Amino acid sequence: MAEPIIRIDNLRKSFGTLTVIDGLSFDVARGEKLALIGPSGSGKTTILRILMTLETISGGRIEVAGEPLFHMAKNGAEVPADEAHLHRMRRHIGMVFQHFNLFPHKSVLDNITLAPILTKGERRADAAARARELLEMVGLADKEKAMPAQLSGGQKQRVAIARALALQPDIMLFDEVTSALDPELVDEVLQVMRRLASETDMTMLLVTHEMGFASEFADRVLFFDKGRICEQGPPDKIFRNPEEERTRTFLRKIIAAGHRV
Amino acid sequence: MGDWPGYLTLIVQGAWVTVKLTVMGSILALLVAFPAGLGRLSRHAPVRWLATAYIEFFRGTSIFVQLFWIYFVLPFAGLSLTPMQAGVTALGLNVGAYAAEVVRGAILAVPREQFEATVALNLTRFQRMRHVILPQALPLMLPTFGNNAIELLKATAIVSLISLSDMTFQAQVVRSQTGSTLIPFLTILLLYFLMSSVISTGVRALERRVTRGLDGVR
Known about the structure:
The complex is a heterodimer of chains A (261) and B (218).
Chain A: E1 6-15, E2 18-28, E3 33-37, H1 44-51, E4 59-64, E5 67-68, E6 71-74, E7 77-80, H2 83-90, E8 93-96, H3 108-120, H4 124-137, H5 153-165, E9 171-175, H6 183-199, E10 203-207, H7 211-217, E11 220-225, E12 228-233, H8 235-240, H9 245-256
Parallel strand pairs in A: 3-10, 3-11, 8-9, 9-10
Antiparallel strand pairs in A: 1-2, 1-4, 4-5, 6-7, 11-12
Chain B: H1 4-39, H2 45-60, H3 63-73, H4 83-109, H5 112-120, H6 125-155, H7 167-178, H8 182-210
């Protein structure tokens, strides 16, 4: 197997006395589509936030593209990463948030072109051309001049996806991207992600409660409970034939709550 | 009583001094408010201490005393200022301390999610502030900045204590020479009100400008 693009080794994370991730290890292969499922508080969103460097770690080690994420070499020793190192490492990673987090003071087009212009030094015209391609892809070609407040939730989320893609990261993190949407707007976002999954070789990590989507999207499903992986495998196995009692209980609850499997 | 045009000229000259003090004092207040407000949010403890010391000192002592120190005591340290310079410095530093807290509060009021989006898009610390946080914090600051500017306008009257002939001082002069209290003080009442109206109208126009496109957001 080729070198994994993400390597998580004995990761620990606590907030004060509360341990949310407890000795977690797993690898992600380049191009792999991974779904992270589990009850709320099981640590799955925290993992994405750590990978995006929105949280620090309490122990363990993460490597992205063969380089440590939170450590760096200095005078032959390994020390905690500084902002410059994090800045360099973040270029590998993009993230889409549950609540979109678009910039309300910028138009749709400016939301998408801001980071490529600032962080990659792209010329405005080039960034705008690429932004228009991305808007086309997410089905919002006619919205480039709109302000975020004028868009529906589904449209906002599709802009947020285009914005993250504009930086062309190797890894995309999707944090419950449909949870804040009205039910009738969920599909338009899932369609975009389906297309992304089939047309690109980006590595994708998806935290979701949409089990139906997880099973068609993912190469591998990780079921989390209490900050550890309780069970993992291909979607067919996890959703149709789980081994662990906790996985079965969780899936039963999700179905009872009306989520599609 | 045929001298009224001359007396009114005195008051208008005083009004001009008041306007100059207000405008320059406000500019100085803005210039110190941003570094001090941002300084209080700095990652570096010494910067935070310095900003906090400035803010607490100027909010915690009277502007009257500050003016006296700047004009009468600083010369002993080798720094002599003209009355106008001393007035602008005292007013600017005093109101700047209040405005610094406005800057800090507005920055903290921008939702955390906005900051997280800037990290995910890999902006540098400076770019985050410049392109995302400050543009959203500014509309929150403006109404209070307007209040601060009006407070500064009204505080300008203290400069008569260091021999500057501002509007209130000139009204006193007219009063003592004519024996009339009503006319000079009605005049400056209207002039103060006019000046503060200009400030609030201007700030409201600015507010409309910077919140354009943000309708429905707040």
